[in-house]
Design a protein that fits this description.
The chain has about 140 residues and is an alpha+beta fold. Helices cover about 30% and strands about 30% of the residues. The radius of gyration is 17 Å and the shape is globular. It starts with 6 loop residues before the first strand and ends with a strand. The mean pLDDT is about 95. This is OsmC family protein.
């Protein structure tokens, strides 16, 4: 399967990018780099892609396993190298589950399946960064 996107310059430092979903997004630099901050930063967008990819896996597994979860979020902290080309060399992905009937072992299995088997973006990140995965359960 091939994905095709088109990213078009909108003047100054702003671009508009298509997506196979039909929803376009804007990319822009911040004022410190002559942009107006009217769009996503490219490297940060990679982190959103990582969280989104794994999040979709885990949400699907929560549904399939019929697990009770009130809320679920993924927090990512990533270290950017100092030298150009700057890239993320260390990335911590934290999965946070909230609820009063959390099945911790099954939720951990869902996370493990995503990070080890299903999430292609996670596999891409493995090629250039050191990944640390944490799972946190918040019983309410």
């Amino acid at each position: 399967m091939t994905n095709h996107i088109t990213t078009t310059w909108k003047g100054n430092m702003k671009f508009e990018s298509t997506n196979p979903s039909g929803h376009n997004l804007f990319i822009d630099a911040g004022p410190e780099n002559d942009g107006k901050g009217e769009g996503y930063r490219p490297k940060a967008l990679m982190l959103s892609a990582l969280a989104g990819c794994s999040g979709l896996d885990v949400a699907s597994l929560i549904k399939k396993m019929k697990l009770k979860v009130t809320d679920f979020k993924i927090e990512i902290e990533a270290n950017l190298t100092e030298e150009h080309p700057k890239y993320y060399d260390k990335v911590t992905v934290e999965f946070h589950f909230f609820g009063n009937e959390l099945n911790e072992s099954k939720l951990q299995k869902a996370v493990d399946l995503s990070i080890e088997k299903y999430c292609g973006v996670m596999e891409m990140f493995r090629q250039f960064s050191e990944l640390k995965i944490e799972t946190h359960f918040h019983n309410q």
